[in-house]
Write a structure and sequence with these properties.
Number of strands: 11
Radius of gyration: 20 Å
CATH superfamily of the largest domain: Nucleoside Triphosphate Pyrophosphohydrolase
CATH topology of the largest domain: Nucleoside Triphosphate Pyrophosphohydrolase
Number of domains: 2
CATH architecture of the largest domain: Alpha-Beta Complex
Mean pLDDT: 87
Helix content: 10-25%
Number of helices: 4
Distance between the termini: 60 Å
Length: 242
């Protein structure tokens, strides 16, 4: 077991040879696929089953509490926007940050995040930075998620988004960061985007928001390499515009 002082702490893209790739199930949002991956030349190819996912974005919208100094680094002086949404696979209403899929053809991550903040909370923001990037479940899914921190929050202008299905019942609430932190450690919050957002926002706040990347910074390694997902997004756009 070595020590890391002489190593770069950075994930890197790598592709083992795939001898066979099969689409097992094609869904509306994601697919289920299986690959035969040659991990070692002296062993048979390994079968890996996983969800092929288009990826997503999430938004940690934060603001100082009323009357607080905007330069304060105290978490009690800041609050974060959370939305309450029903998630059928786990049969629960979860508190989350605004988030959504990269399912609009040609839309970059920043534009997707701005759209989701408007759709779910009818808000817009002046300042956008990358908070964290992560894979939600890399052992079984290709889903990749970028969390932005959004500041300079205001009500959106123009027509309000008309929500449907689960989103019709969504609640949006501003919680203090210390309340959000306490709920997380008490085991009362379970959404991974919300958990990552709360912890990363607290860490970034304590260092005065320094060290954060620009909103358009590359996602590395970036798995936006599923051609069928781009094709599906384009077809969906065409259907919506008919």
């Amino acid at each position: 077991m070595g020590k890391g002082e002489n190593m770069e702490l950075r994930d890197e893209a790598f592709n083992y040879p795939v001898g066979d790739h099969q689409l097992i199930y094609q869904g509306n949002v994601f697919d289920f696929v299986t690959d035969k991956v040659q991990l070692h030349t002296d062993e048979p190819a390994a079968q890996r089953d996983y969800l092929a996912h288009p990826g997503a974005v999430a938004i940690a919208a934060v603001r100082p509490v009323a009357g607080a100094d905007p330069s304060s680094r105290e978490i009690s002086d800041w609050e974060i926007l959370l939305v309450r949404q029903y998630r059928h696979p786990v049969r629960a209403f979860l508190w989350e940050v605004p988030a959504g899929l990269l399912d609009h053809a040609g839309e970059d991550r920043v534009s997707a995040a701005k759209r989701e903040l408007w759709e779910e909370a009818n808000l817009e923001a002046e300042n956008w930075q990358v908070l964290v990037d992560f894979f939600t479940s890399p052992g079984g899914s290709s889903e990749h998620l970028r969390v932005f921190v959004a500041q300079g929050i205001s009500e959106a202008t123009g027509k309000r988004f008309e929500a449907c299905e689960e989103e019709r019942d969504m609640e949006t609430v501003w919680f203090s960061l210390d309340q959000a932190r306490d709920a997380l450690f008490a085991g009362d919050l379970h959404n991974p985007s919300a958990m990552a957002s709360i912890l990363a926002v607290i860490a970034a706040l304590r260092q005065g928001w320094t060290g954060l990347r620009e909103a358009g910074a590359p996602f590395n390694p970036d798995p936006l390499n599923i051609p069928r997902q781009a094709e599906k997004s384009a077809k969906r756009e065409q259907a919506e515009n008919r």
